[in-house]
Amino acid sequence: MARATWIMTRIEDFLGDWVVRHRWWIILLTVPAIGLAAWGIRHLHINNDTRVFFGEQNPQYQALKALEHTFSNEQNVLFIVAPKDGNVFTRQTWTAIAELTDAGWQVPYSSRVNSVANYQYTRGEGDDLIVEALVSDPETMSDDQFETARKVTLAQQTILNRLISPSGHVAGVFVSLAMPPEHRRATPEVAKAATEILEDVRRRYPQIDFYLTGSVMVDQAFGEASKRDFATLAPAMFFTMAIIIGLALRSFFGVLAALTVIALSMLTGLGLAGWMGIPLTAASASGPGLILTLAVADCVHILSTMLHLMREGVPRRKAIARAVQINLKAVFLTSITTVIGFLSLNFSESPPFRDLGNMVGLGVMAAFFCSVLLLPALMAVLPCSAGPDQKNHIRIHCDKLASVVIRRVNALFPLTLVLGLVASLGMVRIELNDNFLTYFDETFAFRRATDFLIENLGGWDIIEYPLSSGESGGVADPNYLTTLDEFAQWYRRQPKVIHVGTFSDTMKRLNRDMHGGDEAYHGIPDSRELAAQYLLLYELSLPFGHDLNNQIDVDRDTSRFTVMFESMSAQELHEIDDKASEWLRANAPPHMHISGTGLSLIWADITHRNIRSMLKGSFGALFLISIIMTAALRSFRLGLISLVPNLLPPAMAFGVWGLINGQVGLALSVVVAMTIGIVVDDTVHFLSKYDRARREHEMTPAQAVRYAFQTVGTAMWVTTVALVAGFSLLTLSRYRMSSEMGLMCAIVIALALLMDFLLLPSLLLKIDRRGDKLAAAKKSQQDRQDGCL
């Protein structure tokens, strides 16, 4: 440790003068190096796949991929048809549905189109099974025929709340898609084609409302959110940082140099991310803006020190060198702790947050090197003057605050500590809940369409079960089919269940139809051979695009069991799946003992999984930061003291969140890891100045606290305002994950400044007694000398 301290001291004494002497070489070499790194931006691409949020090791995601490999992929587009007269069974509406059904085959990668217009209605004629569309030509049908079609259609349990609402006022056209494995480019292609079809039917059928949703439109919305945030938030943050730096420094060339450094830092971080193959997602698209915001702090500390020295009469280049010397250790510590905090996001279960952490970490390191090398080199060549020594109101207020803290320490210490603990109690009200649908606000057409879908046609939350019969061809076994049917009946009795799709319903319908439509035979066939014959006859009668591969596997061993719900919370989804698994264990053979899968369940679980993993990352980051702080300050006591004002703000912020919102999703599960390296910045600067005052100037704790307020209080205030403003701009995002993350980070950082201004100095005054005896002895010796004189 002593060796490392000696090296750091030597670098502090040497670096500032070296940069000033070699300023032109640094500029000439740094700019091309940054340009080479930034060239990687051309490799950046937007990943609009919803499933990018799930790690490959996620067991539920693996289960979903296994189900889709057995049957079919979940990708689809859904057109919703809502006639303004509230009746689907009219000639015009049915014609529109039929046209949409035909147009669905023109959507790229379409593999199946289902609607009430091509629903394959079965009936028996003697020993023959007739399979045909319920309505073949709506133009020639009479009103009576449409009324008959209504009665028959609304009696088909397999399509209610899927292809048509129970009241017959809304219908849907499902287009299933066989998307390529890498469908980054396919998603916009499909979304564009579907949107063009939608606009065409809207123009030709003004009496009907049309909506467009589906999993592909979800992916497209994620891509749109990434583009919006990337294109709007980074420029807004840059503009905001320019204003804040300008007000803080009041130096044109200082602001110019600072903006150059933070812009180059952002380009370097993005470029290095591009070289590493990191994609832009709805989560990582905020990375450029975060780099801009975090890069401000280093620039402000160095430039404010330089300008302060110049106003005291120190020559410009000497002031630059001295500013680097004074701030190097603190800037290095704040940069490395911020990097550690963001790199701890690599513990996240969700890859986009790992990408965000790596991107911002690279940008922050670039900002550090630019701040201690390029920034002072630029200031050494730019014709910068400090300007008049105007009254610094912030510094005056910081000095007054120091007086209050020193004078009222006995009251402030317990008051701030109790305030922090009481605010943290709100965490008990927090409920872990997530629904990726609500990530998007109503400005997204997909969100409006999906809300209409949930309210009028069917639910969005789905759980699926690949239920095995235990043998090849076993789906025709009456015992297996009976278990399926009993499971379906159990599920239909559960609250919020609006549709259950099971292969046993198909076999029950076939058994009835092959007995002349007699409802007494609406049940499971008596023998396996009979069920197999019905299945074969049915499959041979189905037209192209209506096979059963999405319901049963090729080996006829396993069938797909699908349950659709009204809007459900994450907790409710977990509870119903646990009950279903319990029912299977109690009533089904061992090969059917399985838990559900599906995107809704994975999203419901990802927050729990991510919080568990991020707790490891946060504790690991906190442990490393504590070691670094202890080593840098050369005091185990100060290292421990630094933990208190850094741990309380996240706890307080989540307590406040629990009181005003109560819902924590995937975005907020990474906030502690993100902010733990940021909030320590002010603590580092305050403690470093405090420690300098104690060691170099032999001040008492009260004097050292006042010195820290005077020397770094203004910069702490300015950088906190910059950080809060930058993160607050994320709340303007139309993507809830970014807006919630930004709001929570802003709250944490604001509370951190409060703790650093009130609790930290109180702790130091109460606990730090280093050298007091030595100071007293020196004072006594000086008094004796004065007496002798």
TrEMBL record:
TM region(s), chain numbering: 24-41, 230-249, 256-278, 290-309, 330-347, 359-384, 405-428, 614-633, 707-729, 741-765
Record's bilayer topology term: Multi-pass membrane protein
Species name: Anaerobaca lacustris
GO CC field: plasma membrane
Location, primary (coarse class): membrane
Keywords assigned: Cell membrane, Membrane, Transmembrane, Transmembrane helix
InterPro entries according to UniProt: MMPL_dom (IPR004869), Mycobact_MmpL (IPR050545), SSD (IPR000731)
UniProt KW DNA damage keyword: no
Residues annotated as domain SSD: 256-381
UniProt-recorded name of the protein: Efflux RND transporter permease subunit
Claim: Membrane is one of the keywords in the record: yes
Compartments where located: Cell membrane
